[in-house]
Inverse folding.
């Protein structure tokens, strides 16, 4: 307990010397080196973040183009299916008109018997 007040009195008796308190040239050099390293790290980080953002944008564009292509392909398949259904319906109607009285569809070489 007596040590703390004695050190306080001893510290008050000493005169303030600015040369022993300042960091000097080595403090400046080390601070400058740390600052330079931090600046280089920030520049590198910004470059990497920008690169990641560009890659994400390109990925989104490719996915959008692929989705558009898939939708276009689905629409084309749907249109082709619709055309095929229309053709089948037209063929079915033509076959329905060409049936004979018994309901059979006449075929080539299918002639009535000669008497």
């Amino acid at each position: 307990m007596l040590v703390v007040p004695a050190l306080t009195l001893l510290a008050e008796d000493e005169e303030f010397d600015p040369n022993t308190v300042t960091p000097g040239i080595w403090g400046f050099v080390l601070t400058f080196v740390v600052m330079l390293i931090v600046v280089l790290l920030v520049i590198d980080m910004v470059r990497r973040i920008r690169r990641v953002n560009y890659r994400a944008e390109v990925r989104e564009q490719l996915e959008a183009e692929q989705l558009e292509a898939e939708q276009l392909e689905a629409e084309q398949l749907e249109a082709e299916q619709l055309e095929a259904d229309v053709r089948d319906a037209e063929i079915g109607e033509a076959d329905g008109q060409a049936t004979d009285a018994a309901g059979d569809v006449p075929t080539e070489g299918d002639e009535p018997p000669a008497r």
